[in-house]
């Protein structure tokens, strides 16, 4: 466990029961397949961190759950004994949310991975939480249906996506994961099971517990089943890759595109440095890397005419605002080349340095240019390498602060100073701490700083109402 965790956690490990041999014996008696209870050296190191990597602790025991009843039995036991429990999907999170910072039991939900029902009359798909995002897309698209949320990491589980309210590239037109969750089956911290929402399209029946669970990062309950909303699959799509002489010109064009009332599916911004890193990482050429900055847009619709009307208007706006050219991509091969590079930016930047941390703020769309400019100023002010790309169309920026060859103490000091400056700026621009990656452990301090005392106290009250003993994923969010 890192020093930082020990210093920051207000709850002490001693407030929880340590898992001992008697607990293991009881847990083994609750699980039908004993091989799914992992101990000691059989606990893979991967279970001690997520993709962020900076926050680490090994669970005392990992249980690879097979069904909701097992999850319920484990929670009942943990609740009775006051043992902390951390749910985990694929571990692709970026804020340490699935790291068991108090040790205890980790429930790995990735093996509960069945697609349970496609209901074509209600346009819903019912799934277990361990189904991967890429499996959902493939399954529905083969049937001419569409699950719109499109976060970059396709090996994430739907349970993880629901619990982080994952966003992704299509948020501009279609919204985020929350908009596609109709119903959930949830195991509460005390082991009781509830169903929230359902297949209904509308629901004004009291407080929306479903919407509280979505984005709760495994702190309120464990999702064991989800009913997802589907749409008909759009028949046509076209992407535009638009080079600009500089990033300011590119980003300044985005509010004008939004104002034009054409609705792109995605508007991403990127700089040459990220493209070159992705080319090296993938060993594949991007269609163009000669310009300093790019907008990448996607359009979809049901007829070529509808898509053309939309993208021609936007292409003109780009050219009027200083674009150097507009490359149209309308073949599957080109689409693959462009979007696979875009999908690899994070991994490519990570591979280019020794360690990194990220800022995932979201600001009003007309403030994106100002925030990006500010990140460049921070690079000079703090003399540290910073890389950036993001969802210009929804104001969600991904900014990576890179350690490179900095010594540990210097890195920690600089990182803290850069982070504080960035979150202060986001607040000044009326932005939020996280657009899609969540708060987890790593961004907790910044959420605390950004919320009013009243909002924070309501959030803590919600946690207490679901989890009075604070055993489910403790030390996360608020
Ligand atoms: C290369 C890369 C690109 C990415 N791109 C995007 C992107 O575009 N948009 C985006 O939003 N995110 C993105 N992410 C972040 C990450 O993929 C998402 O946060 C994803 O939702 C995590 O899913 P997971 O299955 O890996 O969950 P984990 O990391 O295992 O867990 C995430 C959180 O969900 C909780 N959890 C998991 N399953 C359950 C369950 N069944 N019940 C209750 N709680 C549960 C965990 O406790 C934890 O709090 C990216 C990550 C990488 C590495």
What does this structure look like?
The protein is of the alpha+beta class and 478 residues long. Helix content is 36%, strand content 19%. The protein is built from 16 helices and 18 strands. It has helices at residues 3-8, 21-30, 68-81, 133-141, 158-164, 171-174, 209-213, 247-259, 272-282, 304-320, 332-343, 345-351, 368-382, 408-428, 444-450, 453-466; strands at residues 37-39, 61-64, 85-88, 105-108, 115-119, 124-127, 145-146, 181-187, 193-197, 222-229, 231-232, 236-244, 266-271, 293-301, 327-329, 356-359, 385-391, 396-402. The strands form 5 sheets. The chain has a 5-stranded antiparallel β-sheet. Strand 17 and strand 18 (396-402) form a beta hairpin. Helix 8 packs antiparallel against helix 13 (368-382), helix 9 (272-282) packs across helix 12 (345-351) and helix 13 runs antiparallel to helix 14 (408-428). The longest helix has 21 residues, at 408-428. The radius of gyration is 23 Å and the shape is globular. The chain binds flavin-adenine dinucleotide (FAD).
